Amino acid sequence: MRDRHLSRRSFLRNLAIAAPASSLIVAAPSLAQDLPPLATDDPQAAALMYVEDASASTAPNFKPGSNCANCALIQGNDGDAYRPCAIFPGKSVASAGWCSAWAAKP
Ligand code: SF4
Q1: From atom 1 of ligand 1, which residue's Cα is the shortest distance away?
Q2: Is residue 8 part of a domain?
Q3: How many domains does the chain have?
Q4: In which domain, by residue range, is 44 found?
Q5: Given 5, 36, 94, 103, which residue has the most CB atoms within 10 angstroms?
Q6: Alpha carbon nearest to ligand 1 atom 4, residue
């Protein structure tokens, strides 16, 4: 009886440890893929003159040919239409987009 009680306690303890770990494993892959697109009217996006189409930028420091895909601050996978950006945590930016924080890749 005592062994049975201990094993149930051990099981519950292990379950308590495993449950949060498994939720992290499930949540981690969805972060980069499921970030909501950054809205151009987001206050920080507007302050940095973010546009989804770099060629439409009217920012005075816009350099033709620059876009999010070739910015040093882009994250995620090459070729994805929307990717995380170090400047806008929790959002994704258009690979074809641009903002005034653009920096050349080293
Ligand atoms: Fe795009 Fe770079 Fe601006 Fe991020 S910092 S929105 S990747 S131009």
Answers
A1: 68
A2: no
A3: 1
A4: 30-94
A5: 94
A6: 85
Ligand 1 touching residue 62 (CB < 6 A)? no
Q: What is the pLDDT along the chain (106 residues), one digit of tens a residue?
A: 455 555 655 544 544 444 444 444 444 444 556 899 999 999 999 999 999 999 999 999 999 999 999 999 999 999 999 999 999 999 999 999 999 999 999 9
Report if residue 25 sits inside a domain: no
| Residue nearest ligand 1's atom 6 by CA | 99
Ligand 1 center–CA 28 separation, angstroms: 23
For a mutational test of ligand 1's pocket, the pick from 44, 49, 71, i.e. the residue with the most ligand atoms closer than 8 A to its C-beta, is 71
Tell me which residue of 42, 40, 99, 44 sits closest to 73, measured CA to CA.
Answer: 99
CATH of the domain at 76: 4.10.490.10
